[in-house]
Amino acid sequence: RQFHAAGNIAQAREALIDLSPSDVIENYARFSSLGGITRGEQGLVASMNLRWLTHYVRHYQMLLTEPVRYNFAPTSHDPLAQSMGTFTFHIDRDGDLWECFGTKETKADVSVLDDDRTITRSDDTPAILEEICRTRIEFDKSRTVTIQPIMAKGGRGGNKSNMLAPGRYRLDLLMLDPVSTKVGQRVFDIELQTESASNTCRFKPVRTAYLRLACNGNSTNDWNSIHEVRIDSLDHSYTIASASMEGYPASAAVDGKAETRWAAQGRNHWIQLKLDPTRDTDRIEIDWYDADRRTARFEILVSDDGQQWKPVERRQSASRTIRDRIDIFAQTQQRSKILKCSYDLALASPGVIDLRITPITGKATLCGLVLTPILDEPVKS
User: pTM for the full model?
Assistant: First the structure.
């Protein structure tokens, strides 16, 4: 967890690579079966699969070693339970875990294909996807699905990190239309947008000894607060600020811990970082506190001596939006045949992927999706 918070995905992956939680569960079940397994032990096996293993799957997804799998299907919630169930999972015949999203999670209608209805697929579509495509959501108004590691929302205590790691991904959208009989009856647009959790600022390359963030509050109030700052040329031994709230020192902005932060109230405050002046610096990533609800107001300044400051020459980020129009029958030429549409995406910094679906004719539909990391391909931005 510490490696991941510091952005060191390779070390975090190495720390988990030899762990096999599935083997632990299987060995426990076999041992408990000796002499006859009790009802309590059976319940513990189920709980380990749903309440323990799922957290490992989530961490593997955060570390680019496990695909993110969503199945749009009926979900189960028990409002009378002491701790109401939040998540529903589907485990396929291969043992892969899919988080399910139904009407409660998507505000869309859920449909289930009759058991006697035959699903067909192309040769390059895995047979395992037939069970996933027996369920689907349908809707006649735009819907947005945020793609991120499983169990991102609704867990007790909240999850500290809901972000995908930087890297390249292949997204497969799974669709099936059991109703249409001709082209044009069910048409919808999709838009894929990568959203970075950090404010990545790019500027003309400079070689400088110091960088200062001149902070002037945010769109909501006059607080300035940063969880983490990432710069390739950063010298972690030196960080100062014009002011700091007690318990929220300037050093917290470079300690690699997502749960700590620097904070100061008021306009015209700053936090100052030391850089390696022999290296080019052309970007800074800033994880602002409450960035999803407010916009920070700040300027980036650089200096060779820590006395004379000048602003950097900011650059605009490149667009990261993919658009496509889907007509399932036109692309499959028959009813109840799985359509798999694939898209290549990239995240230059930790973030999420927003999938927006807008119906054009008839209702839009989606059965599932798989987001697979593509390793050993660095992302340039």
Answer: 0.70
